[in-house]
Amino acid sequence: MKSSHEPAFSEHNGGRRSPLDPARVTIRLVERIQQGVKSAESEFVEQFSRSVFLMLLKRTDGDEFVAHECTQETLLISLVKIRAGEIRKPQLISAFVRQTAINTTANYYRKHNRFVALGKEQPEPSVWGTDAASDIDGAQVQRSLMELLRLLPVQRDRELLDRFYLRDQEKKEICNSLNLTSAHFDRVLFRAKKRARDVLRTNKTLEALLYQRISQKD
Amino acid sequence: MDKLLTDRYIRNKLSPAENIEFEQRLLESRELQNEVEEALILQKALRLEKTLINESKHGTYEVNRISPVWMKWALAASTVLAIVSISFYFVENAERKLLVDQVASLGQPRTGVVSASIKIMRSADSHIPEAIIQLPTQDSILLLEVELGTHSRAEKKLNFAFQSDNDSTILAWTGVVDEHGMSSVAIDSERVPSGLVWLVVSGKEKIALERRLLEFNRE
Question: Is A186 an 8 Å CB contact of chain B?
Fold first, then answer.
């Protein structure tokens, strides 16, 4: 049985769409918000908060603070527009939320002058806990991430991950250079991600800190 | 299915169209959210280790990676001269001169620039704006980068116009298409109307090839 937190994946039955078709669920959700159903607004936030946050975390190059701020702003703008009946095609709500998130982030950077003057060095990509060293939460996040690294594989595999994620090298280039097969590359990546997932799921500190601000909003 | 799709997304290796599709799926799929989260956590951990190693070696952080995200924001920080210079970085040769002329023709000095990309979305030609652009109050330039549809890309030169709902033209200009199917223009932000505006793209026969809905808001 599915929990209430699991997504309503599309299930086709004899060519007929299931009532759990996510597109249909989302359309219904938008309609309920427009009808003034308050619980529908909470559902909307629950449905989109994590995904928008992850999208913005990637787009802000890992700036957790900006991603949180902009996620909240995005959800607020989206809800206001839905309430006002400005979303005339509810089936396109994901496209609307996505574009709102992008615009909100652009506005955030403009407002806060987080710019780089021409000719100056590029700022460092932020790392949780290193841009606010005095923050105790930051220290906890660091410890959690280092715990993940301790679980990661042997030196050659670590080299693979380093080249792939940090030095931006392509799979083929890495395999040639380290004399690896494509299958080995895939295995290393799969194992590393599984460990990341395990650490995230067993280390509640890391998970809680990651989603803290969104939870507080709720 | 591409096993490395999520990693290609994390590493900014998807094409603009793939990126849009991926992010829209990301908004709807919990499974994809888990994959992105795992990859981001892993990347963060590796980055943290690198930072700490460099810190211990040099007594300061040393990160050499240039962020594409920050490159984008560099645009927004520039004054007019900087706009022209840095735009060269992004804009193809054929468009350079046009953009320089456009900026020069704006006359008085400007203190800011708003860079906005108008990407093709699934909502094209609907009543949902493809982009919501926040404009500053004064003394700024709007640098609009428009991703064009297939029909428009076939044209060498295009006519662009901002039109209201009743088809009256508010502002018009001509532009060229670069090899990536993009066209850029620099506009005095004070000439851009607030609210919903249609961006109409037409060819030499003045027949509309595309109609895209935009929303401009002022702070």
Answer: yes
